[in-house]
Design a protein that fits this description.
The strands form two sheets. Strands 3-2-1-4-5-6-7 form a seven-stranded parallel sheet, with helices on both faces. It has a six-stranded parallel sheet with strand order 10-9-8-11-12-13, with helices on both faces. By secondary structure, the chain is an alpha/beta fold. The relative contact order is 0.12. The protein has helices spanning 15-26, 43-50, 70-94, 108-116, 132-142, 155-162, 187-198, 219-227, 248-259, 275-279, 297-304, 317-320, 335-347, 349-366, 369-382; strands at residues 2-8, 32-38, 54-57, 98-102, 119-124, 147-152, 171-173, 205-210, 234-239, 266-269, 284-287, 309-312, 327-330. β8, α8 and β9 form a beta-alpha-beta unit. It has 15 helices and 13 strands. The chain is globular and about 65 Å long.
Length: 383
């Protein structure tokens, strides 16, 4: 059995958090023994512990834009020592064969693996276009010989990090996967949930964007596109919360809704743990990210709920959504292009049903947790 230390940068339950949880839940426990390090308490920790997984809280050494000040660098060095101390004690007890750094945001595993000659796997879920200094640092770290394997979550992510590099290194592309849930709400339950959660009647068509309230997830461009659409019996719903200590994005979105006079047609609700139920009462899913999504897990969620997806035509989303077959790809950051795509689906229930069915079939064929976890376990087995 291989003892594996998983290190992750968040304790929430968004994209990379959710895929890590599903991976660990589906590991063959006769072959792999997982232990997880997280930076803080949160729903991911609770979920992992409910599966009898050992979770340890420790600094994971995040590299970010505003850290290059004397005060922040001193804090980084303190965290470095503290993180190393925690890993040293864990390694003495469990003698890890592999350290699995899940996302580029965590540096602790890379440095500890290098110092202690432990195999290191880096699972890259990010595309970081700026600042240029941090992009260059990560490019070098990904190409380092310290890594025994690198997993990219899409062709788009792989192409981005390989761009301009002369070095070759072992890497795999593994698309993220989700559980296929067959539990369907009854029509009465859908009506009830729609009324309670969305304050909506059963005949209202719901356009939904599920994801963090942030500067690049596209809430603002969707709101602007929605403003151009006739509002007859249509509601726009944003499902999600801002990152910790970044409520400014939520405040800005609320102000925009009020300034446009769309309070009656637009709703913001916080992150929902029963997200699969929420998808069942959304009619059109939108992924309007202004920067390229490394993958775009929310599009897969929507497709597994048989929903048509309107998505920005860049990044990993182009590997998930098939234009005019499972949804519509619009020109990124183009309000008119997004508005036109929405109009097409609003006006055609037949297209919404057809795209939804084909999207479900595509998701089941390519983006399930079984496919995802099996591919990663093969990599772990061969390390």
């Amino acid at each position: 059995m291989k003892n594996i230390l998983f290190i992750h940068q968040s304790a929430e339950l968004y994209g990379s958090d959710k895929t890590l949880l599903l991976l660990i839940k589906n590991l063959d426990k006769s072959k792999f023994y997982p232990i997880v390090i997280l930076p803080n308490e949160g729903p991911l920790k609770k979920e992992l512990e409910s599966e009898s997984i050992i979770v340890v809280i420790a600094p994971v050494l995040k590299l970010y834009r505003k850290m290059f000040t004397p005060k922040k660098l001193v804090g980084f060095l303190k965290d470095f020592k503290k993180g190393f101390s925690v890993l040293r004690k864990l390694n003495e007890e469990y003698k890890f064969e592999i350290i699995y750094s899940n996302t580029l945001a965590v540096l602790l595993g890379f440095f500890f693996a290098k110092k202690n000659n432990i195999k290191h796997l880096w699972h890259v879920h990010e595309i970081i276009e700026s600042p240029n200094l941090i992009r260059k640092i990560f490019s070098s770290l990904i190409a380092s010989k310290v890594n025994n394997a690198v997993i990219f979550n899409s062709n788009a992510t792989s192409a981005f990090w390989r761009k301009g590099l002369n070095k070759t290194y072992r890497s795999e592309i593994v698309w993220n996967g989700l559980e296929v849930l067959n539990e369907k709400l009854s029509e009465n339950k859908k009506i009830e949930l729609k009324r309670e959660l969305f304050h909506s009647n059963n005949t209202e068509l719901i356009i939904g964007l599920v994801g963090r309230i942030s500067s690049w997830k596209g809430q603002k461009i969707l709101l602007n596109a929605f403003e151009l659409i006739p509002k007859k019996n249509i509601k726009l719903v944003f499902v999600g919360s801002p990152p910790p200590n970044q409520d400014v994005f939520l405040q800005e979105l609320n102000r925009s809704i009020v300034s446009k006079g769309l309070q009656n047609e637009t709703l913001i609700i916080p992150f929902q743990e029963n997200i699969n139920d929420v998808w069942q009462i959304i009619d059109i899913a939108v992924v309007a990210s202004t920067d390229p999504e490394p993958f775009g897990l929310v599009a897969v969620e929507a497709m597994l709920a048989s929903k048509p997806v309107v998505a920005a035509n860049h990044g990993g989303l182009t590997e998930i959504v098939v234009n005019n077959e499972t949804g519509i790809l619009f020109e990124p950051n183009n309000i008119e292009s997004l508005s036109n795509a929405l109009r097409i689906l609003i006006e055609s229930e037949e297209l919404r049903i057809s795209f939804g069915k084909k999207g479900f079939d595509r998701a089941v064929k390519n983006f399930t947790v079984d496919i995802y976890s099996n591919n990663i376990q093969k990599i772990l087995q061969n390390l």
